[in-house]
Specification:
Layout (H helix, E strand, L loop, with lengths): L1 E4 L3 H5 L3 E3 L6 E2 H11 L7 E4 L2 E5 L2 E4 L2 E2 L5 E2 L4 E5 L6
Parallel strand pairs: 1-9
Antiparallel strand pairs: 1-2, 3-8, 4-5, 6-7, 6-9
Length: 88
Amino acid sequence: MKVRFFKPFDELSGKDEIDLDLKGPVKVKEALGMIEKEVPSFRRFLRKEKDEVLNFFVVLVRGDEILKLNDTLQDKDIVKVLPPISGG
């Protein structure tokens, strides 16, 4: 699975994208843990209690779909990591 980082996460991670080798379908919350292992600076954007991700300060997008923690990802997916967007 390709994970593409957009500002400011590209600067914080020092990478534009990473490849994660998924052995099968994984939940978004599992993929977040994989990203965290690849890019340790990503950890501060996740809020955890024990092993459970409570919320995250990023938005993961696949195509036009904003992903939720229990959504499933496949190895062929391309996921964008974006900051939360708010309007006024």
